[in-house]
């Protein structure tokens, strides 16, 4: 406003002048106001001709302050509620935790074999993944064994009481249609049990999708899921499972499941591939390895794929061939040994080489009659 009105005369000066020029001076303010309006509308559209009143500014400032204070109060209330909830949860949990689950706590239940003892550890066994002083069980480096004796009949009776009467075909079909499209992908690990029970709070069944190495033996996965969680598998299609919690399941009476705070380092096990295979000489083992590398690949395994039919394909191939090659160029390097161990026990066969993302398997010294009898046994078990 100073730039526009610095050259004008004030209204007080027009009143002090003589009457001869009063008419002329009384019209000059009107001309100056009209000139000011015309300049303010066209030259600078962002500069209004009249400044806003102080009342509107005060009202706007008061409203902004009220909104800020309201948002701050909301944040403070939320923080207080979270702090109270965390304090209540901390007060409710007394360490060390005591769990009545009748099995040994491991990081992975389906991918470990308790019959094979490790020859070393990559970290001291005294460091428990459950945290110091948080569990009443002692960590041995591979598991936290359950202490005391458990009555298997009593445990089975309690589980049957939670499951209730068997579901009818209509009820199973209804649950499958309701939960088969839900996304709940969990791994077969210890913390997976806690995830399942947390899903059972708001859903009767949990959809589990298995990928990678566990899909080589889906029967083992189903057994551990039912044994560790206490539920019942009511639907199974290739690698997709539906785990039912039971008719009489009460989330308030769920078991105490201590969580692992970090993934423990895998212990050191004996070598899977020997320098000379059992039953062969050094030259024969070398010849088998070269033959396997030069043979066409039976299958190409993908990363995090579904390996349900790998065992059956290998059993069929070993009826006519002595050495088989699996192409694992797109598989994680950490999964090579796991796949070899699984196939050695399931087929069975002998891994003789892991090289250049390839797995060479030898069927071992067996006659075709032994192979045909071994193939007939698992099919009869699957039918039953």
Write the layout of secondary structure elements.
Layout: H1 2-5, H2 11-16, H3 22-42, H4 54-92, H5 152-163, H6 169-179, H7 190-200, E1 205-209, H8 218-229, E2 232-237, E3 240-244, H9 282-294, E4 297-300, H10 310-317, E5 323-327, H11 336-346, E6 350-355, E7 358-362, H12 368-383
Description of the molecule:
GO terms for molecular function: RNA binding. Residues 44-95 are annotated as: Disordered. It holds the Pfam family CRS1_YhbY. Residues 66-80 have a biased composition (Basic residues). Residues 53-62 have a biased composition (Low complexity). With 384 residues, the protein is of the alpha+beta class. Among the domains are: 97-270, YhbY-like (Translation Initiation Factor IF3, 2-Layer Sandwich); 271-362, Translation Initiation Factor IF3 (2-Layer Sandwich), CATH 3.30.110. The chain contains twelve helices and seven strands. The strands form two sheets. It has a four-stranded mixed β-sheet with strand order 4-5-7-6, sandwiched between helices. Strands 1-3-2 form a three-stranded antiparallel β-sheet, sandwiched between helices. Helix 10 (310-317) links the parallel strand 4 (297-300) and strand 5 (323-327). The longest helix is centred in the N-terminal third of the chain and has 39 residues, at 54-92. The radius of gyration is 39 Å and the shape is globular. The chain starts with a helix and ends with a helix.
What are the key terms here?
single chain; 384 residues; alpha+beta; Translation Initiation Factor IF3; 4-stranded mixed β-sheet; 3-stranded antiparallel β-sheet; 12 helices; 7 strands; 43% helix; globular; disordered N terminus; disordered C terminus; RNA-binding; mRNA splicing; RNA binding; transit peptide
């Amino acid at each position: 406003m100073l730039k526009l009105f610095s050259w004008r005369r004030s209204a007080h000066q027009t009143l002090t002048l003589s009457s001869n020029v009063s008419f002329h001076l009384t019209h000059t303010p009107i001309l100056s106001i009209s000139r000011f309006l015309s300049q303010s509308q066209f030259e600078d559209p962002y500069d209004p001709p009249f400044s806003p009143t102080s009342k509107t500014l005060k009202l706007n400032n008061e409203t902004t302050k009220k909104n800020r204070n309201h948002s701050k109060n909301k944040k403070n209330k939320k923080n207080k509620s979270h702090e109270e909830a965390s304090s209540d949860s901390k007060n409710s949990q007394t360490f060390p935790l005591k769990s009545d689950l009748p099995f040994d706590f491991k990081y992975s239940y389906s991918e470990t074999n308790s019959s094979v003892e490790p020859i070393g550890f990559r970290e001291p066994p005294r460091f428990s993944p459950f945290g110091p002083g948080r569990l009443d069980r002692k960590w041995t480096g591979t598991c936290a064994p359950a202490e005391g004796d458990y009555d298997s009949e009593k445990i089975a009776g309690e589980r049957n009481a939670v499951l209730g009467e068997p579901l009818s075909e209509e009820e199973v079909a209804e649950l499958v249609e309701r939960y088969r499209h839900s996304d709940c992908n969990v791994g077969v690990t210890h913390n997976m049990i806690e995830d399942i029970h947390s899903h059972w709070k708001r859903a009767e069944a949990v959809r589990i999708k298995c990928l990678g190495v566990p899909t080589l033996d889906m029967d083992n996965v189903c057994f551990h899921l039912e044994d560790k969680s206490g539920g019942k598998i009511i639907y199974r299609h290739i690698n997709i499972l539906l785990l039912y919690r039971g008719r009489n399941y009460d989330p308030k009476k769920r078991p105490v499941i201590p969580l692992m705070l970090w993934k423990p380092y895998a212990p050191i096990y004996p070598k899977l591939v020997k320098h000379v295979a059992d039953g062969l000489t050094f030259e024969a083992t070398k010849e088998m390895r070269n033959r396997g590398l030069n043979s066409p690949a039976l299958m190409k395994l993908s990363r995090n794929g579904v390996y349900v039919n790998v065992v059956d394909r290998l059993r069929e191939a070993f009826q006519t061939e002595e050495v088989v090659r699996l192409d694992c160029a797109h598989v994680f390097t950490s999964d090579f040994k796991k796949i070899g161990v699984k196939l050695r026990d399931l087929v069975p066969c002998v891994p003789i080489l892991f090289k250049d993302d390839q797995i060479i398997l030898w069927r071992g010294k067996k006659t075709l009659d032994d192979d045909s009898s071994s193939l007939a046994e698992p099919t009869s078990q699957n039918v039953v």
